[in-house]
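Our consortium's second objective concerns turning raw sequence data into structural hypotheses that experimental partners can test. To show how far this objective has progressed, the report includes one record in full. It was chosen at random from the queue rather than selected for favorable results. The single chain below, 376 residues long, was entered without modification.
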Amino acid sequence: MKKSLLALAITAMSLSAANAATVYNKDGSEVAIYGRVQSIYYSQDSGENNNAANDGNIKTSGRLGLNLRSALTDNIAAIAKVEWDVADGDDKSEFGNRYTWVGADFGQFGTLKAGKFEDAIKYVIETTDVFEDFACYGQLGNDDRRAGMLGYSWSGYGVDVNATFGFAKDNQQVDGAFYEGEKVDIDTAYAFSLGYTTPEVLFGPISIRAGFGGANFYDSADYDGVESDPKNPYANNFYDKYTQWAASVTWGGDEGLYVSFMGQARDFTMTENANNEGYDDYTLTGFEFAVGYNFASGVTLLTGYNYMKIDMDGADNADSKGSVIPVYALYQINPNFRVWAEARFDAGTDEEYEEDTDGTYALDENVFSVGCRYTF
């Protein structure tokens, strides 16, 4: 239970980090299985209610994953990962893929992988992803798990290097692309991040991270002869490209105080469809702050601040902002079972913010959740 808050953040995104159980190990090949089952009560207007009245309810879900590894030489191993959402307690009748990739671990020379995963910006923004239900409103890229990705990472001497390239894929997740339901057809994507973690300073190491990335999209003009066909989904693709930068600083150790700050901006360039319809270019600039304390007893207390501003180009008085304060209390009863309570308080969200995000974020309601999770 003596786990740093940074470790908790990473575990929240990838259950395999600390809980995978090896079910096969022979002749240099390993298969590890991991997963979770959780039930969470969400209050009214939380956005997780799954009913027409948006009343409070309980949402139960499950997740399952496999980590695979096989030695090829003394210094090189083949590696692979697959992870699914397997149930949401209501209407999911088949596995929903979260991660699928295969690659090679070259030891001191880094790892190379190909498949579905987040780009290199994830390494920078994950440091404030330490809450369960109501946070990450000041960042973009947290949910951008995309297919067709190629990634390289290397770590040594306190330094972390990550680089990703995305090949052409349709209907991929792009946080902030509200006018296409955050699903856009990617032509190419790229990202790079770099970080350095110091030895322990007072109550823990200091980690400094920065990254830059972007993507080019297909638009209706790229599909000859079909721009005006109302049955063709590409005729309504208003996005041309985006670029993004992000930076974060964290300070904390295995126990005790943890502090993290993250800032980022994702700039979207828009285009027009065959009917000369389109949207203004816009930039989403946000930052997040998290501070908490991890007790040896397994109790974690956290709070912070999330802020996002939408800066619309070419429109007067069209800017809006959303800002919230998350509060979180966790009790890790044993390595497999945890309970928590979390709340989100509006901290001055503009009335126009929900409209400007095309209904994706309604942050002006104060909401809460209470949950429990079994992890294996």
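The partners drew two points from this record. Confidence is low (pLDDT under 50) at residues 1-17, 223-232. The chain is about 5% helix and 55% strand. Both points have been shared with the crystallography group to help prioritize constructs.
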